[in-house]
Structure formats: structure tokens, C-alpha cells
Design a protein that fits this description.
Elements lengths: L9 H5 L8 E4 L9 H10 L4 E4 L11 H5 L3 E6 L6 H9 L3 E4 L2 H13 L3 E4 L13 E4 L2 E7 L3 E12 L4 E2 L8 H7 E12 L18 E4 L17 H4 L1
Parallel strand pairs: 1-2, 1-8, 2-3, 3-4, 8-10, 10-11
Antiparallel strand pairs: 5-7, 6-7, 8-9
Helix pairs in contact: 5-6
């Protein structure tokens, strides 16, 4: 890797990577650890018929929900609908093809794709709709279902820190799906809140090695959205 992994803007980083009908894997969980700048650039590109692989599709008007609003997504591979009403409406109306996976299975499919493993057996989902039509096998007296690894044309992730070689470190729960998504992309583009020189990021702080990351942009400063704010009621004495 070299300084060439750094790009001036999300649009510049994605300019020659997007095409109609592509598979796009996106990190994040709800609104945490979501590569919002890169998603905005995908929206602006007007690429369409996307297959999006993500834990869920954010919320209405935020994150991946913007791609749904613009009708750029034809299929979603996810673990649940979440707080996005438009996602639910498009799924129930048949306007959007949705492939639901148990959350651990989805994570393992991405991890397997990044590790060069084409398929694996799991007991999760056996006997349910998610296992219908898939090969089954018995090991040690228990039935398992075959799941395929996922390799995306492009993966989009958000990191807390990147160095100039694309080594990434994440922060707390914003890590979530980002490491497995980063590994599963044929090309991976990361936005990072902070970019440091090579050597400034301690080796044991690196979660995603730069070998998986092809392009990096600095994330814009913006207020981080909270999907559901839960706070304690103020004591009467304090509110007075």
C-alpha cells in the first residue's frame, strides 16, 4: 500500500467503481458505524438495481434508507428490517426482493467470503424458511444447512482511524459489521474520522489490515444520529 489509497472525496473514491446491478456490502448497524459519506456518494451517482448486503437498512431518510427512497435498490440481503418503514413497505408490496439471514449467519457469510471460503454448514435456520431449497447434511447426528459465502463487488465501511496505508481501527460498538464487510469486498472503500501517518497507529490497535482496504477518504464532520434515545427521567428537584 502507498499514499495512493487516500482520495480527496467519496465521489472521487467511487467514481470508477459503481455500476448498475452491482453487489454492494455496507458496514454499520442501524445508524452506528455507517459510512454515511460514501452512501451519499452512491446516491448522487444514481447507480441502480443494486443488491445491498447489510445488517439492516438504517432508518427512513438516513443512511441506506436514502438509497431506498431513490429506488436504487432491487435486492437486500439483511438480518432484519429494523426501524425503516419504507424498507418494510417495499418488501411487503413486492417492490423489493429481500433475502433474510439470521444475524450470525449473515456475519459468517461475509467473513467466509473475505476468507476465501465459498460455503459452510450451520445448524442455524434448519427447519425454517431460511433453509428452504438449500442443501442439508448431517454431522454427528445433527442436521446442518449449507450457506454460501458473500463476496461483494464493492464494500463500504466506516472506521474511527485509518493510517495512510489503509489499516483501520474502529471505536466501540461502531465496529459492528465493518470488519467482515471490509474483508468481503473485491474492492473496499473506507471513510475514517481520523487519518494518521503510517506508524502512528499501533499494530495491536488495527482490526482491519490495510491489505483489505483499497481506498480511504476522510469522513466529514457531522452530528452523529441516534436511532433510539433512551434516558432517565429528570428528578423533580433537579428539573426545578
Amino acid at each position: 500500500m502507498s499514499m495512493s489509497v487516500l482520495h480527496e472525496s467519496p465521489a472521487a473514491a467511487l467514481s470508477d467503481l459503481l455500476f448498475d446491478g452491482m453487489t454492494l456490502a455496507v458496514g454499520g448497524f442501524g445508524l452506528s458505524g455507517v459510512p454515511v459519506d460514501l452512501i451519499d456518494a452512491v446516491c448522487a451517482s444514481e447507480v441502480k438495481n443494486l443488491t445491498v448486503v447489510s445488517n439492516n437498512m438504517g432508518i427512513d431518510g438516513k443512511g441506506l434508507g436514502l438509497l431506498l427512497e431513490k429506488g436504487q435498490v432491487s435486492k437486500v440481503i439483511a438480518s432484519y428490517v429494523g426501524e425503516n418503514a419504507l424498507f418494510a413497505d417495499q418488501y411487503l408490496s413486492g417492490a423489493l426482493e429481500v433475502e433474510f439471514n439470521p444475524q450470525g449467519t449473515l456475519a459468517e457469510r461475509l467473513r467466509a467470503g473475505g476468507a476465501g471460503i465459498p460455503a459452510f454448514y450451520t445448524a442455524t435456520g434448519v427447519g425454517t424458511e431460511v433453509a428452504e431449497g438449500k442443501p442439508h447434511a448431517e454431522f454427528d447426528g445433527r442436521t446442518y444447512v449449507l450457506e454460501r459465502g458473500i463476496v461483494a463487488d464493492v464494500s463500504l465501511v466506516r472506521a474511527h482511524i485509518s493510517d495512510t496505508d489503509g489499516n483501520l481501527a474502529y471505536r466501540y460498538t461502531a465496529r459492528n459489521f465493518n470488519p467482515v464487510v471490509a474483508a468481503a469486498g473485491r474492492v473496499t472503500v473506507a471513510e475514517a474520522e481520523k487519518i494518521v501517518e503510517l506508524g502512528e497507529l499501533a499494530p495491536d490497535a488495527v482490526t482491519t489490515p490495510g491489505v483489505y482496504v483499497h481506498r480511504v477518504v476522510r469522513a466529514s464532520e457531522r452530528v452523529k444520529d441516534i436511532e433510539q434515545r433512551t434516558v432517565r427521567p429528570r428528578p423533580a428537584a433537579a428539573s426545578a
